[in-house]
Amino acid sequence: MRASWDTYDHRVERLRAVSPVVHELVLTPTRRPMPYRSGQYVMLDVQQPWAPERAYSLADAPRRDGRVRLLVTRYPAGPTSGWVHDGMREGDQASLTGPFGTMTLGARQEGPVLLLAAGSGLAPLEALAQTLVTEQPHRPVVLCFAGRTRADALDGDRLEELAGAHWQLRYLCVLTREPDAPLHGRLPAMLGDLVGRLAGWEVFVAGREGFVRDCRAAALALGAAPAMVRTEEFFADPAPRPAGRVLAQGVADGAA
């Protein structure tokens, strides 16, 4: 039996490129706002009959005005992400079904938090960082983003500003294809030098499958407890609407 989730109507308020392969999509509710928790995702319907619903993470903590922000990666031959990048315009209609997902903050956790993101896997972790600095300001937070080049560093200015305004947040950007970058290399291999031992830390990882796998292994090797490491893998496979269960986050034609 199919579980029931609500659908919320929205209007495209802003649409812009934020990297060579990612568009930022800001949606305003036209009726009631959608309640959700940081770290969750939704099914986006772009109101085109040939473009199926796809899963995208919510890139901001919940806002009073109900606006939501998605980071949409273009995938080859992906009809939904292709429409967002090439066909969608400000003022268009879209709907969101959900929210889904359980990669949210533990209510009883008090220790430091490590957020590891690659590409548009940043979306759910950026929302978590925003919630942590406002609702749990006593917890130290390290957010590490991995990208290829400076052009791929999603929301870098936004995150540097957030870190500058909140003492407990440390933002690190690791680039794999720019040898002159302050932090150059593969994030999983650098994790020990960047953060040290992870016993007692709550760890969240989001990105492509290989990145998630390697970061989880690195965190465990540094002493993180398996139960304290939460992961979301982003795939490039079709993502039909969940039927009777919640999908794993990040199933793409443009996951998160």
Structural commentary:
By secondary structure, the protein is an alpha/beta fold. Helices cover 21% and strands 30% of the residues. The chain contains 5 helices and 11 strands; from the N terminus they run βββββαββαβαβαβαβ. It has helices at residues 79-86, 122-135, 156-165, 187-195, 209-221, and strands at residues 6-17, 22-29, 41-45, 54-57, 68-73, 93-100, 113-118, 141-147, 169-175, 202-208, 229-234. The strands form 2 sheets. Strands 4-3-6-1-2-5 form a 6-stranded antiparallel β-sheet. The protein has a 5-stranded parallel β-sheet with strand order 9-8-7-10-11, sandwiched between helices. A hairpin with a 4-residue loop joins strand 1 and strand 2 (22-29). Helix 4 (187-195) packs parallel to helix 5 (209-221). The chain is globular, with a radius of gyration of 17 Å. Mean pLDDT is 90; it is low at 237-256.
